[in-house]
Amino acid sequence: MRRWYVILLVAIVLLPVPAIRAQSPSLTIYSSVDEENSRKILAAFQRATGIEPRITFLSTGPALARLEAERNNPQADVWFGAPSENHIDAKLRGLTQPYGSPNAPALDARFRDKENFWVSFYMNPLGFGLNKAVLEGRKLKAPTSWQDLLDPAFRGLIQMPSPQTSGTAYTMVVTLVQLMGEDKAYAYMRQLHPNVQTYTTSGTAPSRAVAFAEVAIGIQFTPAFYQLYLRGYPLLTVFPKEGVGFEAPAISIIRGTRRETEARRLIDWMISVDGQNALGDQETFFFPVHAKAKRQAGLPSLRLVPLINIDLDFAGKNRRRLVERWVNEVLGGR
Amino acid sequence: MDGSTALPATPSGPGAQLRRLLADPMVLLAAILIQGALLVFIVWPLVRVLIVSLTPGGVFSLEAYRDQLRSWYVQRAVLNSLVVGTLTAAASVVLGFAYAYTVVRTAVPMKRLFHILAILPIVSPPFVSSIAIILLFGRGGIVTSGLLGLRDFNIYGFKGLLLAQVMTFAPVAYLVLRGVLEGIDPTLEDAALNLGASRWTVFRRVLLPLAIPGVVSAFLVVFIESLADFGNPLLLAGSAFPVLSVQAYLQITGMFNLQAGAALSVLLLLPSIGAFLLYRAIIGRRRYVTVTGKPGRSSLKATSPLATWLLFASTAAVAAVVVMFYAVIAAGALARTWGVDNTPTLDALRYVFSVGWETIKDTLAIAVVSTPISGMLGMTIAFLVVRRRFPGRAGLELTSLLNFALPGTVVGIGYILAFNQRPLLLTGTMFILIACFVFRYVPVGIQAGIAVLRQIDPAIEEAAQNLGASSALTFRRVTLPLVRPAFFSALVFAFVRAMTAISAAVFLVSANWNLMTVQILSEVGSGRYNAAAAYSLVLLAIVIAAVGVIGLVLRGGYSPVQGRFL
Question: Which residue in A148, A186, B338, B339 is deepest, having the highest Cβ count within 10 Å?
Fold first, then answer.
């Protein structure tokens, strides 16, 4: 027992001795795409190129916070996923480095950075997820527009994320501001407030509440709704007819990477037609950004989704102001 | 309780302290090593965070603090945090005390089962427990709508948060209080009864005063952990009910404003430090010694039959909620589609064992390594704080609490800032995860140990030393067996938290080390709720097994003292 005690004390002292890290031929990836989908997509990448992905899963906020904290000694080579505005943020903070992939010009301009710091590789529109059982149980008509959500019959039956935490909710705020003008959009959100049961921290939490019949309507990006439908939940996905914004998750190379060649190959492959087809083949329910890529069975044609063009520049510059205004006017009622 | 000092007459003053220490090199060595470790793993990361919060834009300024304190939203968050923290701690201590009293001091049936059930809620698997709470207490919840007939009950906000917090933290209070109640010699109560005191008087004037160190320690740890915790608030508070820990988390991961997040976390430390000072003032220099080495036999007469059955009923009710909670999760793990199609199937469990085996092994490895370190460190610190005098002793207890009092996000960020550069390059290793868990969760062990040690007459240990035993031998053969209930609590808590902690770990995990909670999060993210529930079930099974193993090891490792210490 005494020996154990001494060993433990010595172990505590020795903790600071860094372990020797093995150099293996691979690419270290911080992935903000959900684990299952990242694994499937990156396994296809490994089959195509032979490069082994070493993935750490971090949702957008923690990923950016960690990149910032590790700035002096980057631990990852690539940031994979997270909506493009966060990659703009990373670029402005000097956390990433540019790469002009030969495959990038084939993409629509809104899916890539002019200076090649990031490129989007899929996109998801905003939408309403409806629980059919709850709606029928309460004899409510399915909403088809933003205006429909204001119906007092939906009091406490809607969940949406909070723009304080969630890029999803911020996209919704920007969507409404672009559709209605800023003051009218805030008046709308104030009116919507009593119908919202809670503003969730996570951008994907509303789909959970809808699946478990805690609320009738969830507002968020749509892949989770399709996925839950696939898993057996009675969900219906609706795009409000006035228009919806979208997220376009992107990929960036982290400044100071020691594996630039492999990182570039990941970008080249991901936005090639092959890589884009992998999104559908692997059943991700993500919309590809390459016009020539296949669409997954079960996803609607993009022409049926009333997409609006999100002004990323406006969204990035006004984020703090718009969120504070939301806190003060919508939450605080001031 | 006679107002004399807690220690035998000792020459004081730094000179005398040093001379005593030099005569006892093992204690000196332990004190130096531990203080060094706390400096490196608690103070240094905190200093890095402080620097960030005080230098927005590279120059020293208090701007980040001023900005935050000016906002009405942050002011409300401060208030909410204090209210929820205080109420959670008060309710948890009352509940934990009643529960521990029932298990330790009454002759009711099913005590071992109650004991295990009290520990389980600490596991509280992230996200899955929020689904279970919705299914039990939500709009169509089994309890709210089914049992109580409430219509459109809203679980989000203050009520739901308080409920979840008490459920999560009352077990921690139980862990601390159980050891203390076990240490109080029942013959004292018998003596008071024989002298004609009523049972209520005995409880009020004998048991309760002797249990004060445990009550105050339990209140302190629950208050601090509830303030720093953001798991429950994140899921149940919602934006309309801001709390400080969530605000710190949001500033860092939502607004990418590290300065503001760091500043809020430092603000969060103030009430915790305040609570600590208050605790010191209450415990003071009074004596709580009841364990004097003379064997005591309990007759368990001090509780009237009516009170016993009332306690039994309320304990059973609490235990029933715990059972329901995990029954809902078990049903989810075995259902085809949790909440919709309840056809039983083993698919989810099979999936977990085929996909998640590596993760289970990794998590277990980290927990198994960090648990004994954490337990030993906790007992050693408690021993040093209560029994020895050395320079920096007062600071030791406070320092050990700091990482516990910070939100996990901030601890995680602090660790990256501190340990991502030579000479302390640790990121990406298993060490950093273990160090993080050990130094973050050791305070529960320390507090349990301190509370129990205060009851034990130092004369027992002095007797051993007078007979020629070294400090180390005395600690190992006399002190550790005497504080066994606290040691048990320390080990169990360290193990469970190492298995389930997520907030700090998110910043420290790498592709090499995957944790089960991270896996649960990802299954929830993919809509595979039954798999997430299955993982939680596996987690639960591991924890129950571990509690059993820890109990056995402690029983085997130390010869029991007259059967008094379980």
Answer: B338
Q: Is residue B5 part of a domain?
A: no
Please state, as a whole number, how many other Cβ atoms lie within 10 Å of the Cβ of residue B90. 15
In a domain, A265, yes or no: yes
Could you tell me if residue B564 is inside a domain?
A: no
Number of folded domains in chain A? 2
Please tell me the predicted confidence (pLDDT) of residue A322. Answer: 94
**Domain harbouring B177, CATH code:** 1.10.3720.10
Q: Do A73 and B427 touch (CB under 8 A)?
A: yes
* Residue numbers in B near A5 (CB within 8 A): 376, 472, 476
Residues A142 and A226 in one domain: yes
Largest CA distance in chain A: 73
Domain shared by A281 and A198, yes or no: no
Q: Checking DSSP bridges between strand A52-57 and strand A158-161, what pairing results, if any? A: unpaired
ipTM for the assembly: 0.71
pLDDT in tens, B259-276: 888 888 888 888 888 988
The answer to whether the CB atoms of B435 and A89 lie below 8 A apart is no
Q: Specify whether A110 is located in the same domain as A63.
A: yes
Q: Which two tokens stand for residue B270?
A: 């103030």
The set of residues, in sequence order, having a beta carbon less than 8 Å from that of B204 and lying 6+ positions away, is none
Q: Please state whether beta strands A249-254 and A96-97 pair in parallel, antiparallel, or not at all (unpaired).
A: antiparallel
Alpha-carbon span B421 to A220, nearest angstrom: 39
The per-residue pLDDT for range A46-66, each reduced to its tens digit, is 999 999 999 888 878 788 888
* Closest A-chain CA to B135: A212
Residue range B426-476, pLDDT digits in tens: 877 788 888 999 999 998 899 889 888 888 888 888 888 888 888 888 888
Q: Whole-angstrom Cα distance, residue A187 to residue A185?
A: 5
Query: Are A217 and A323 in a shared domain?
Result: yes
Give chain B's domain count: 1
Say which of B238, B420, B523 has its CB closest to residue A198.
B238
A3 part of a folded domain:
no
Considering only CB atoms, which chain A residues are within 8 Å of B138? 212, 214
One domain for residues A169 and A217: yes
Q: What is the pTM of this model?
A: 0.81
Q: Which residues on chain B are in Cβ contact (under 8 Å) with A9?
A: 29-30, 33, 376
A305-330: string of b/e by CB count within 10 Å (b at 16+)? bebbebebeebeebbeebbebbbebb
How far apart (Å, rounded) are the C-alpha atoms in residues A157 and A159? 7
Q: B560 CA to chain A: closest CA distance, Å?
A: 16
Q: Which residues of chain A have pLDDT under 70?
A: 1-25, 334
Q: Is residue A304 domain-resident? A: no
- Could you tell me the residue range of the domain that residue B35 belongs to? 14-557
Q: What is the pLDDT of residue B21?
A: 65
Shortest Cα distance from A231 to chain B (angstroms)? 7
| Per-residue model confidence (pLDDT) at position B93 | 95
Domain span at A211: 125-245+309-331
* B563 vs B566: CA distance, rounded Å: 6
CATH value at residue A96: 3.40.190.10
> Whose CA is closest to A202, among B250, B462, B264, B506?
B250
As beta bridge partners, residue A53 has A27
Give B377 to chain A, closest Cα distance, Å: 8
Q: How far apart are the first and last CA of chain A?
A: 65
pLDDT score recorded for residue B152: 75
Nearest CA-CA distance, residue A125 and chain B, Å: 17
Both tokens assigned to B379: 């007992």
Q: Say what the pLDDT of residue A257 is.
A: 93
State which residue of chain B sits closest to A164, comparing Cα positions: B254
pLDDT for A204 equals 83
Q: Which parts of chain B sit beneath pLDDT 70?
A: 1-23, 254-255, 284-286, 291-302, 511-512, 556-566
Contact B522 A36 (CB under 8 A): yes
Give the angle B154-B155-B159 at the CA atoms, nearest 5°. Answer: 105
